[in-house]
Amino acid sequence: MESVVFDASAILALLRNEPGAEIVAQHIGRGLVSAVNLQEVIKGLLRRGASLDAAIAMLDALHLDVRPHGREDAIAAANLYPATREFGSGLGDRTCMALAIAEGLPVLTVDREWAKINIAGLKLLMAR
Prior knowledge:
128 residues; alpha/beta; Rossmann fold; five-stranded parallel sheet; 7 helices; 5 strands
């Protein structure tokens, strides 16, 4: 059973063994991630010099339930813009938040700015 929706920052913290990794690790095998956030993680790994094959292998080892981002998902994420713009939340952030709200699950993130966001139905689990 799913326990959280992973923000890209949480997955990257785990893969880089950064602060909060131990909390993220507790949810591996029981979490969702948007395809948009998966792309962000792959980009982050490539930016640090990983090959595409290595990045995919690392992510496959986490057994994440990757969810598509369709029309209704895009509308829901865009609708979060007014509540998130002052905190610098981008497309991936809003996509993650919208998925979490739709699924009724908390977002697992290491991004401390998210703690300042107040959106009905958005629950957060801060890993640091």
